[in-house]
Amino acid sequence: MAREMWGTKLGFILAAVGSAIGLGNIWRFPYMTYSNGGGAFLIPYFTALILVGITVMMLELVLGHSTKGSAPLALKRLKAKGSEWIGWLGVMAGFVILTYYMIIIGWGAVYLLKILLGGFPTDFEGFFFNDILELSAGPGVLGGFSVSVLIAVVAVWLINFIIVNSGVKEGLEKTMKVFMPILFVLILALVIRGVTLVGGMEGIEWYLTPDFSKLTDVQIWIDACGQVFFSLSLGFGIMIAYSSYLPKKSDITRNAFIISLMDSGFSFLAGFAVFGTLGYMAVSKGVPFEEVVAQSIGLAFIVFPQALSLMPVGGEILAAVFFFCLIIAGISSSASLLESVTSSVMDKFNVSRRKAVVAVTICGLLCGLIYTTKGGLYWLDIVDYFFSKYMLLIVGILEVLVAIWICKGDKLVTYIDSRSELKIGKLWKYVVGIIAPLILLVILAQYTLTFLS
Ligand code: PHE
Ligand code: NA
User: Fold this and answer.
1) Architecture of domain 9-452 in this structure
2) Distance (Å) from CA 21 to ligand 1 centroid
3) Where are the membrane-spanning stretches (predicted)?
């Protein structure tokens, strides 16, 4: 059977951008910028984007495009002995992330429903931890399921199943053509509201006022690289699978630049929405900014909605918009993970899309059940720590070394350059083959040292 194809170039770009744009852009990048030197952080960020972001993105795109295979098959077709398992390592890591990414989207869905039905709670922390998660005392106490989370997660899986089961063009492409424009419009609305609030501009100052003295701290450069890698969805076979559905004439260099810049642009923009709104909260409560600023789960599920609740009018609508954004950004990433795993199973076992996606969905749902228990958040934290930090780096390093040094670095260069007006030639090969893996290795070592100490 002929390999499926994207219907249009734009469809592919939107799907890849949809994968890249996710929770990391909204709840991680803005805080990282704020705490790592504000506007000055953009220097390490863009350096990282060029050295380990766009270059590895190009590698993943050329791997998928030139071999017409998902990650394991792509690496196998490079004909290095035993390299197929590197692809599987990335895909399996993606599968693990998928099982808990779905849960976070599920929380967002429960939160959205509760706000729509019952308005803002009075105690935001209690609302999230007790009412939604029904959080137990520790990871050892599972204490049964949080029923609302369980139902939401099943629903989120079902949506993902429908998208991926419908195929590359009819499922992923059609969905992302709707999701991405909506997401950009809604985030713009949140940005405009955020910066026009009383205190909004102060928030932006906290977000972006540059502190160049921080640039001497190596840690900041490491953080920037880690964020870029995760943010571009690299290391999980996603971009490999997506580019394997591109038509013959595709400009890999240009695609890599567009996808990476759109992801960074979205992150930068999201920061205005987040910090404008947090600035409003700090000013209206008359407390120092350090007391309101937050990231990750605390930002999305506690502080941000709480800030909106202080608004005299329209806060609930904005909170609904915010959670809707989280859900759309989340699903466009989770569907890409599901596609990466599904296409790998299809390629390996020669089964139909339907069979593969049914199998992956059932396994994924079952494996993720633990996070829907009352002790789920603890487990999610532990698993996230290892998979979103370590696994992608390990896969990234192995991928680069095999593709560039054991196999056909020069052939890949020719392949890329013959399809683009922008000739990157040998420069790309050396950056992605030497500098990128060295940087990733340093990050890996540093993470390990911090973990051990
Ligand atoms: N790129 C996503 C983000 O920034 C995270 C992600 C990584 C999603 C890998 C899917 C796969 O949030
Ligand atoms: Na991202």
Assistant:
1) Orthogonal Bundle (1.10)
2) 7
3) 12-30, 42-64, 85-113, 145-166, 178-200, 220-245, 257-283, 317-338, 358-380, 386-406, 427-449
